[in-house]
Amino acid sequence: MTTNCIKFTSDDIENAKAIGSISTLTFDLDITVEPVASSNPMAPTHRVLGRSPRGKLVECGGIWKKQNKDTGSDYFTLTVRDHAFNANLGKAASQDDMSLQAIIPWGPKEAA
Q: Where on the tree of life does the source sit, at the highest rank (predicted)?
């Protein structure tokens, strides 16, 4: 699999499982993504899981569905807590497959 992408099991990203890979200069992480069922509008749509140094699968972040304030279109963001990593998900370059999402990093959130 190409790094910095997530491959969902279907185009219905909000309800699909997925696997992916995130690589930066400071970490390299294979991830598993599982949907979350919640009535809380602030809850993530997915749990992001990675492997501990001893190989155990541990929750390390989440994916949230957001809405663009200008256009009203939906999009997804990803966070990996331990690495203060934040990214948007978007259609992978040169792909027509909406189930393949590129991980598009952006800077860490500033402390409030």
A: Bacteria
